[in-house]
Amino acid sequence: MPLIASIANVKDSRWLTLEVCREYQRGKCTRSEQECKFAHPPTHVEVNSGKVIACFDSLK
Length: 60
Known about the structure:
This protein is 18% helix and 10% strand. It is of the alpha+beta class. It has one domain (8-59): Ribosomal Protein S8, Chain: A, domain 1 (2-Layer Sandwich), CATH 3.30.1370.210. Strands 1-2 form a two-stranded antiparallel sheet. The N and C termini lie far apart (37 Å). GO terms for molecular function: RNA binding; zinc ion binding.
């Protein structure tokens, strides 16, 4: 039972996951962050498989 209890306490951040703009990654996106439906993360943000986890406050 301890394993099930520890899994239940893990926060699910999948809903905070955003796809990164492929054009932005190539340095060729002509849209602003507000116009593009994909994420434009700063260089210090880790990108995994073309996705980032956004801060909840940034989505408000």
